[in-house]
Amino acid sequence: MDTSIKARFAAEALDVLAHYLEIPCLSPAYDPEWATAGHLDRAVELLANWAEDRPIRGIRVDVHRLKSRTPVLICEIPSSDPEATATVMLYGHFDKQPPLGNWSPGLDPFRPTLRGDRLYGRGSADDGYSLFASLLAVESLEKAGLKHPRCVVLIEGSEESASPDLEAHLDALAERLDGTDLLVCLDSGAPTFDRLWLTQSLRGNAVVTVDVRVLERGVHSGTASGVVPSPFRVLRQILNRLEDPYTGEVLLPALSAQPPVDQVRRLEDLASELGDVVASQLPVLGGVELAGDCPAERLLRQAWRPAMSVIGIDGMPSVSDGGNVVHAGVTANLSFRLPPSVDAAAATASIVDALEQAPPSGAKVTVTAHPPASGWSCPPLAPWLLEALDEASTAAFGRKAGWTSEGGTIPFLATLGKRFPGVQVVATGVLGPGSNAHSIDESLHIPTAESVTLSVAHLLEAHADISKRPPIAESD
Ligand SMILES: [Zn+2]
Rounded to whole angstroms, what are the CA distances from 63 to 49, 52, 75? Predict the structure, then answer.
């Protein structure tokens, strides 16, 4: 199976994946007209047609639609063992991030380009490959006469907008997801391409818009300055309630949490093997000092520290247009990354509260909270699963699986963790060096996609094997 599955990815997936890359199927947050534009529909139909053509025994493919929501693609595959009921759910998404800016010469977000062993285009690695990896893993097991469990492949269409449509689909599809005891999320990161990487935690995200008003309209600064409180200064003052302006430490207790000891140890191991992986990925200007005293501390900060970023600002003219004026107001979008175990709704409430209380100089301060997304901390995995993951990684990459943390957010994992409390979760992916997800020049490293596909096949085979064993009685 091992060599043929890699060849199968190249032969069966790349053409259709390239067609998918041509579709500007942006996530609804970046394309409010998505329903009339039809790009998400075209993408899901393309993927569904490919899935329907797979020679997988008993596969049922549906594009599941709900009114005013993005569709999901669901592929149900019966177990090779009619007695087995345990289900593995494989997750990915087909909506895309916007292009972000100008791509490098010769590359285009919506024109697939093959260069060396990479396929360039928006959505190639995040997360277009996921359907292909899932189904080709099952198909390869069947071709090799090996067993697999019942699988449900779920590819959603609103992930890059924080999955607002997923819950409704999960409700409607609840019966078909019954029996899920393992969830494999194929939308995560990899510090290197030499092993299967497992994500142990993801940070959450809270976003608020804060608006500060002091005047009915802007006034000549010769008239107003020194008398009218500058809206920018008022904003600075209230931001200082949230973070220390000198160190960037977030000051609100509701936004802090302690990492589990075993996760800290894995990050220390990662730093001692790979060095300063955080710093080495950042385009930092010479002389700029980074927070964190050592590589392990930086990994820990990226994984577990809360941090605020001002991600947008309105009310100020551009530098070339700005005259000597005290402006009427200023509006800023604040984004907070939250520790994995922090409740994002409670964190958001605490942020809003800190911004709104006692407005400096009596300015009119209005805060709007956006839907929060909690992070995720991987519950301990069963011994058979840890063993199977090491075996899968060794078979596909030649070395055992590795553990890492992601500083970003996959809202879906927190949602599913709550919905299926006992389910084991494996979060992995192909987003590694040079993948540039969300940035310009996104690419899929094809050998890694092939190896992840092979790893998934091994994992499914191990699951089919374990599900035959009688359940081990809980000891107390
Ligand atoms: Zn993604």
Answer: 10, 11, 9
CA of 412 to the centre of ligand 1 (A): 10
Residue with tokens 């063993």: 387
Instruction: Classify residue 244 as exposed, middle or buried by CB count within 10 Å of its CB (0-12, 13-18, 19+).
Output: exposed
**Please, which residues have CB less than 5 A from ligand 1, an ion?**
126-127, 187
Ligand 1 centroid–CA 224 distance in Å is: 48
Dist. CA 187 → ligand 1 center (Å): 5
Q: Is the pLDDT of residue 473 over 50?
A: no
- What the chain holds in terms of domains, given with CATH numbers, is 2-202+375-466 (3.40.630.10), 204-276+303-369 (3.30.70.360)
Query: Distance between CA atoms of 234 and 452, rounded to whole angstroms?
Result: 50
CA of 127 to the centre of ligand 1 (A): 5
* CA distance readout (Å), 139 to 89, 146, 184, 355: 16, 10, 17, 54
For 204-232, write each residue's pLDDT tens digit: 999 999 999 999 999 999 999 999 999 99
How far, in Å, from the CA of 98 to the mean position of ligand 1? 12
Task: Record the pTM.
Answer: 0.88
In whole angstroms, how far apart are CA 442 and each of 186, 264, 438, 468?
A: 17, 30, 7, 41
> How much distance in Å is there from the Cα of 358 to the middle of ligand 1?
40
Pairing of β 72-77 and β 60-64: antiparallel
Q: How far is the CA of 410 from the centre of ligand 1 (A)?
A: 7
Handedness of CA 213, 216, 220, 226 (dihedral sign): negative
**Which residue type is seen at 282?**
L
The alpha carbon of 41 and the centre of ligand 1 are apart by a number of angstroms equal to 18
Q: Determine how many CB atoms are found less than 10 A away from the CB of residue 380.
A: 10
Place of tokens 């890059």: 160
Gap from CA of 171 to ligand 1 centroid (Å) = 22
Interval between CA 199 and ligand 1 midpoint (Å) = 14
Per-residue pLDDT tens digits for 251-283:
999 999 999 999 999 999 999 999 999 998 888
- How close is the Cα of 234 to the center of ligand 1, in Å? 37
pLDDT digits (tens, 9 = 90+) for 324-335: 999 999 999 999
The answer on pLDDT for 471 being more than 70 is: no
* Lookup: tokens for 387: 């063993």
